[in-house]
Amino acid sequence: PHLPLPSCIHFASHPTLVDYAKSQINKFDNKGVCQLHQWGLWCQERVSDKVFPSSISSQCAELFVLQDVSSSSFQKDVARVLNEMGITFKEEV
């Protein structure tokens, strides 16, 4: 019989993967640490459990909020089209 495949949620929050990320935290560049922050938030939202200890979560979150933010070309295209259509919106930054 075929075993069921793990869901993306269970794979993403698997203890072995989390432990590896925690053990390698100092090897991630700023972009990687920001991705870890987003991954941790996603897991927390989907699994209702924090994947990282508070110290790592704080480190990731602090770096995340310090990053320069710019709109993607897709976001700019959407904003342009909405403006052309006369639709009022608040643009995310």
**What series of H and E elements makes up the topology?**
HHHHH
Helix count equals 5
Strand content: under 5%
Kindly report the average pLDDT value: 85
| Derived structural class | mainly alpha
Low-confidence stretches: none
Number of strands: 0
Give the helix/strand layout.
Blueprint (H helix, E strand, L loop, with lengths): L7 H5 L2 H9 L6 H18 L6 H13 L6 H12 L9
Verbal overview:
- With 93 residues, this protein is mainly alpha-helical.
- Helix content is 61%, strand content 0%.
- α3 packs across α4 (54-66).
- The relative contact order is 0.11.
Provide a quick synopsis of the model.
With 93 residues, this protein is mostly helical.
List keywords for this structure.
mainly alpha, 93 residues, elongated
